[in-house]
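I am hoping you can look over what I have pasted underneath with an eye to the fold:
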Amino acid sequence: MLELDEIVCGYGGQPVVSELSLRVRRGSVVCLLGPSGCGKTTVLRAIAGFQPLSSGQIRLRGETVSRPGFTLPPERRRIGMVFQDYALFPHLSIIENVVFGLTDRSRRNRLRRGQEMLELVGLEGSPERYPHQLSGGQQQRVALARALAAQPELVLLDEPFSSLDVDLRERLSHEVHDILKSQGMTAVMVTHDQNEAFAMGENVGVMRAGRLRQWDTPYNLYHDPADRFVADFIGQGRFVRATLRTPDTLETPLGVIHADRAFLWPPGTDIELLLRPDDIVPDDSASLRGQVIKKAFKGAETLYSLRFDNGVELLSLFPSHLDFPLGESVGVRIAATHAVAFETSGDG
């Protein structure tokens, strides 16, 4: 459906996106994830036709729509857009917002399509209400309904949930994913929130400084990051200095760890081992003990920050019924069999 081949684009002669390539299969929902200023929204604008290319090309359905010196206008790309601020018309009713772009249909057909879209997003009982009468989540549903009304082959979503509260953001991201899949839509979303990206994206691209650092499944991004930046950006965790003794044995300040993978560095190599909260398992009988210095209750789990006698600090997830006060000494064991590690002098 969508192909980006080594695209370069930017503003005022300064490149913001550099030699970025990716492929999106028809019917899949994917995400571009990265910190503010990494170029992800510029990529979305280039796909939509709002941003020209200085190098590379973009193809939709096998047809070149952008290359240096040529940009097919956005209205000819059959793309739906969902914006960060919803971009609803305040003086139009909900159903009038949804059908606004359907100018080539009769009024009856436009209203029928609008009602179908409102039913799809769960707002069938509110066609005559106005945007200011809706919650943020409802306004976002209207924006999605409008984007889908013209039956585009590709939907682009620009930070669509960023103005919503955390609980609503997570719930709506799952709902929007299900709606897009039920309609067989291909979609590309950009976000700085990895929870949104993981909820929405079958594949996720992590960007930094205009470049795509890894394009992979959420599982592989978490368990097999391509470099130190991706490892640090995805999930939570702490890096611990270690020394490789054998291809699968690491000596750390917290003891020897046996990995279920063989590293290719020579014995004696200094590395940094990533330990995530789910690698640090509560074990009251363990000799390794850490002091609780912070705690964050998360319902089914509590995230503890632990400090050990040698000064190392790690995060650990405990079942929430194991409740320890600040300052308490708790036993843990390290279960980082699927080890993620990088050379100390590696990419930062």
Notes: The helical segments are 40-48, 94-98, 107-120, 136-149, 166-182, 194-200, 218-223, 228-233.
